[in-house]
DNA sequence: CATATTTGACCTGT
DNA sequence: ACAGGTCAAATATG
C-alpha cells in the first residue's frame, strides 16, 4: 500500500494520542477544581464523572496506540506470539523441597512483557476507572519514589493483559506518573454511575440519567455485596461494548465529548433526576425514578444505598 | 472466608 | 553483574 498514506495515518494518530493525553490532564485539572468547590463529600457525582472521563481517555489512548501497534508490528516478522505458557497457575506441589521447589518449577515459565504499546500520563490521582491489582513495587535507581506495578484485575478470569506502572513525580509529589502498557481486552466492571442525557428529554428541564451497571448480566458475589441490586448495562455501556471487540475510536471519542457536555451542565444544574432501571433478564425488570436536589443527595461516596431505601423509592 | 497488598526472592535483557 | 519486571508466600483487610 501507499507508505505515505499509512505514514500520515500514524502521524495523525500520534497527534490524536497527544491530544488525548492533554485532555486527560485537563480532566485532572478539572478534578482539582471540583474538589476545591465541593470539598469532602460535597458533590460526589461530578468527581466520579471525572473518573469516568479518565477511563474514557485511557480507553481511547489504548485504542490509538493499539492501532499503531498493529500497523507497526503486523507486517513485521513477529516472533512467537505470547503463547500460553504455564497457564495453570495453581500448579500441583512437587515432592521436592518445600519453598524453592516451586521456584524451580517456575523455571522457564517466567514471562517478561514483550515490547508493546505504552503511553504515559501525569495525573493527580491514580484512579482511572479500571480495576487494577498491585503485584509489585520496586525502588528504581536514582529515583526518590518507588515504582508500583499493577495488572488488570481480570487478568486471569478474562485474560486481560493490561498493566500499568505508577510512580510519584519527583518534581511534584502530588502528581502521579502512570505508564500504561497494553490495552484492556476485558469488559471491566464499571463502578461509577454514568450520567447521560436521555434522548427524549424535554428541553428546558434539567434531567440526567444516573445508571449503575456491571458489565455482565450475571452478578457475582462481590457485586451483590457492593450493590444490592443487579443493574443492567446502561445505554452508554451498550454503545461502548456491544461489539465483541471494543469497536471504534470515534465511538469512544464521541462519548467523551458528550460526557464533557454533561459535566458542564451537571455542574450548573441545581436539581437532578435519577433514573435507574434493571432489566437484567428478559423476565425481570425494575425501575427507579426520583427527583432530588443537590443538597439532599443521600448517596455516600460509594453511591450505595440499602434495599429498604430502594424499595421505598421505587414505589 | 475470599480477595487484595506487601515484600523479598527470582528471572531476564542489557 | 546489574537493573528492572514479575512471582508468590506471608500478611492485611473486610
Automatic annotation (TrEMBL):
<feature type="domain" description="WRKY">
    <location>
        <begin position="121"/>
        <end position="184"/>
    </location>
</feature>
<dbReference type="GO" id="GO:0003700">
    <property type="term" value="F:DNA-binding transcription factor activity"/>
</dbReference>
<dbReference type="GO" id="GO:0042742">
    <property type="term" value="P:defense response to bacterium"/>
</dbReference>
<keyword id="KW-0238">DNA-binding</keyword>
<dbReference type="InterPro" id="IPR003657">
    <property type="entry name" value="WRKY_dom"/>
</dbReference>
<dbReference type="GO" id="GO:0000976">
    <property type="term" value="F:transcription cis-regulatory region binding"/>
</dbReference>
<dbReference type="GO" id="GO:0006355">
    <property type="term" value="P:regulation of DNA-templated transcription"/>
</dbReference>
<dbReference type="GO" id="GO:0005634">
    <property type="term" value="C:nucleus"/>
</dbReference>
<dbReference type="GO" id="GO:0009862">
    <property type="term" value="P:systemic acquired resistance, salicylic acid mediated signaling pathway"/>
</dbReference>
<protein>
    <submittedName>
        <fullName>WRKY transcription factor 83</fullName>
    </submittedName>
</protein>
<keyword id="KW-0804">Transcription</keyword>
<dbReference type="InterPro" id="IPR036576">
    <property type="entry name" value="WRKY_dom_sf"/>
</dbReference>
<dbReference type="Pfam" id="PF03106">
    <property type="entry name" value="WRKY"/>
</dbReference>
<dbReference type="GO" id="GO:1900457">
    <property type="term" value="P:regulation of brassinosteroid mediated signaling pathway"/>
</dbReference>
<keyword id="KW-0805">Transcription regulation</keyword>
<dbReference type="InterPro" id="IPR044810">
    <property type="entry name" value="WRKY_plant"/>
</dbReference>
<keyword id="KW-0539">Nucleus</keyword>
